[in-house]
Specification:
187 residues, mainly alpha, 67% helix
């Protein structure tokens, strides 16, 4: 196994360890971070990625709503990222997916447009891709816990919802106006 194959798993394990260690130390005391703002930030990043994917015909609007609803209800639309931040988020996402799957962005998009899922495209690296996407989206939450602005206990539900959104995204078949592939995982 190469170091590039182990790196996302190592990062995921390290992040989990940091959250566990600092979580036990930070459980007591008032939190200063706003869970709702962190949730809106994660939602805005996922929504930016999926909105662009819907516009280009990769995913359907119902798939977008299904994935983003893991964080906020469908009727809430806090897409408050600037256009520049949206472009950077979308570019970073596709680059990360391509890098994790060993394909370039164009190959990933081509396979998605033919009906494959991100999990299938990533193949044996699907778990690493899922963990990497989770860590990328949950980084602000982990930072808030590490900085003592959010307790570990307060972060549990939000981190679970981010994980659910990533899981939902990984199993959606690309290719345009597709129906939602429901997650077999329970809330």
């Amino acid at each position: 196994m190469s170091t590039t194959t182990r790196r996302p798993a190592t990062v995921a394990a390290l992040a989990a360890l940091v959250l566990a260690l600092f979580g036990s130390l930070i459980v007591a005391g008032p939190a200063r971070a706003d869970d709702d703002k962190l949730r809106e930030r994660a939602h805005a990043r996922i929504a930016a990625i999926l909105s662009e994917a819907v516009e280009t015909g990769i995913f359907s609007e119902s798939q977008e709503n299904y994935v983003t609803s893991a964080l906020l209800p469908v009727w809430v639309d806090p897409k408050d990222l600037s256009k520049r931040a949206e472009r950077k988020t979308v570019k970073a996402f596709w680059s990360f997916v391509g890098e994790s799957s060993g394909l370039d962005d164009e190959q990933v998009l081509n396979r998605l447009s033919r009906g494959q899922t991100l999990a299938r495209i990533a193949g044996d690296g699907a778990d690493d891709l899922r963990d990497g996407l989770y860590n990328w989206l949950a980084r602000p939450v982990a930072a808030a816990v590490f900085d003592g602005e959010l307790t570990y206990t307060e972060s549990i539900e939000l981190r679970g919802d981010i994980q659910r959104a990533v899981y939902r995204l990984m199993i959606q078949s690309g290719g345009g106006d597709r129906p939602v592939t429901p997650s077999p995982r329970r809330r």
